[in-house]
Design a protein that fits this description.
The protein has about 160 residues and is mostly helical. The chain has helices spanning about 5-15, 25-35, 45-60, 70-85, 90-105, 140-155; strands spanning about 125, 130. Helix 1 (about 5-15) runs antiparallel to helix 2 (about 25-35) and helix 1 packs across helix 5 (about 90-105).
């Protein structure tokens, strides 16, 4: 596969639901932040769209996605009409169609790694307790249990 980065491979896994429920609005910025080694708050919508377009182009060039301008445009407008009852198409709609095609493609021969759940640390909580620290490392069992005890004690005090 032509120079597909680790973050792009993780994005493929995300599009194929390896990370659980998909929430493009909240999650995509974390893959770009991981790729650029910046914090997610510094990622803009334009960065996300460009990242997905670049990945899509690589997958088309390598033959994983069959591209036809006519079919792509028809599917983009069809998705927009079916899901939002609108015909106005924005860059985000084109990006979502690309991600949909990535989700549907076959992954044989892609040499994909295991999902790196630390990319989406904001998603992984139990009862509001963060399982990963701010650097993406899994917090220790003792640390999490101590936080649970603190919450239980504060509830008992009520």
């Amino acid at each position: 596969m032509k120079n597909v980065t680790r973050s792009e491979k993780q994005m493929i896994l995300y599009a194929k639901c390896y990370f659980g429920k998909i929430d493009y609005e909240k999650d995509l910025q974390y893959f770009i932040a991981n790729d650029l080694q910046i914090t997610a708050d510094k990622v803009h919508k334009e960065d996300i769209v460009q990242f997905v377009i670049t990945l899509y182009d690589k997958l088309v060039a390598d033959g994983y996605i069959t591209f036809s301008v006519k079919n792509f445009i028809e599917r983009t407008f069809q998705r927009k009409w079916v899901y939002e009852n609108q015909i106005e198409v924005r860059k985000e709609d084109i990006m979502k169609n690309m991600l949909s095609e990535i989700q549907a493609m076959k992954i044989n021969g892609l040499d994909l790694p295991e999902p790196d759940f630390t990319i989406l640390v904001h998603k992984y909580t139990i009862y509001g307790i963060e399982l990963y620290d701010s650097t993406g490392n899994l917090r220790s069992r003792n640390e999490i249990q101590a936080e649970i005890r603190d919450i239980e004690e504060s509830l008992d005090a009520l």
